[in-house]
Structures are given as C-alpha cells and as structure tokens.
Amino acid sequence: MVEDAERGCIFCEIVRGKREAHRVYEDELSLGILDINPFSRGHCLIIPKRHVPWWHDLTEEETESLFQGARIVSLKIKKALCPDFVCMYARGRRIPHTHIFLVPTYGGDVLDRFFNALEGFQEGTSDLAQLRDARSMEETAELLRSM
Fold first, then answer.
1. Per the domain annotation, does 4 fall within a domain?
2. pLDDT at residue 3 tops 80
3. Using one digit for the tens of pLDDT, what is the confidence trace for 96-134?
4. 20, 27, 111, 146: least CB-packed within 10 angstroms?
5. What is the CATH number of the domain that holds 39?
6. Contact 97, 62 (CB under 8 A)
7. pTM score, two decimals?
8. Rounded CA gap, 26 and 24, in Å?
9. DSSP string of 34-101?
10. Other residues' Cβ atoms within 10 Å of the Cβ of residue 70
11. Which domain does 53 fall in, by range?
C-alpha cells in the first residue's frame, strides 16, 4: 500500500514506472534521470527509490547508493559533455523527495554566475563575516563535535 506522503510524488511515480523518465543510471536503491527542466544539457537528478524527504534521513546503504550513483553519473556527464564542472547539490524542498542535482556547468553560464554571486555574498557581508571569527568558528566546531 502506498503511503500518503508518496501519493502524488512525481519521483515515486517514476520509480514505480507510472511516469515516464529518461533513465541514465539505476541500482537497487537509487535512480538517475534527466531533469525535465534542465539548467543545461545533461542536467540529471539522482533519487532514492524509497520516498525520503531529506537526504540526511536516508539509511547508510541508501546514502552510499545515492552518492555512488551521483559519482558515476557525474563521470558520465564529464566524459559525454566535457563541462568545466559538474555542480552537485541536494534538495527535497519543492518536491519533498530527496534528490541530488547534477548540473554540467561552464564558465559564465547561469549556475556559474549564480554560485559566483553567492560566494561573493558569503565572503562580503558583515553578518556572515562574524561567523568566520576564530572564536565563533571554535564555538561552532565544539558544538558540532559534542553532538
């Protein structure tokens, strides 16, 4: 029986074969597909076959499968399309099913400009600069180590 959270989830429908997708990779726990709204040619999504909204809630085996799949597909993208870089980030917000974006990027394209702007913001604001303070960094590291 399909759980309520899975009902209507486009990724669960793809995994079950109820929706069409351009599959580029698959193993027992994960699936790689082309994104239907690509940022660039070869933009892929790696999804767990089990409905899990947040990647940090995956089992150890699912996490290993997901990131191994991301590595394999990234290498395929690099070989086939020769991008400068394959950008990787995890989501699950708009579609509440974990998915890793793998986006081939080239100098000056949309994602390259976006991440350059984001890094400029990260390095240039006074609020974030306080987070780089040695005392703040040590407090945060200690907090994370203690968990």
1. no
2. no
3. 999 999 999 999 888 888 888 888 877 777 777 777 788
4. 146
5. 3.30.428.10
6. no
7. 0.82
8. 7
9. E-SS-SSTT-EEEEESS--SSGGGS-HHHHHHHHHHHHHHHHHHHHHH--SEEEEEEE-SSSSS-EEE
10. 22
11. 10-106
pLDDT at position 112 is 86
Establish if 85 belongs to a structural domain.
yes
Q: Residue 53 falls within a domain, yes or no?
A: yes
Catalytic residues: 99
Q: Per the structure block, which two tokens stand in for 81?
A: 């399309």
Residue keyed to tokens 């351009």: 22
CB 103 within 8 A of CB 111: yes
Q: What is the pLDDT of residues 20-43, one digit of tens each?
A: 999 999 999 999 999 999 999 999
Residue 126 lies in a domain: no
For 85, left (φ over 0), alpha (ψ -120 to 50), or beta?
beta
Structure tokens given for 65: 């499968």
Q: Which tens digits make up the pLDDT trace of 56-92?
A: 999 999 999 999 999 999 999 999 999 999 999 887 6
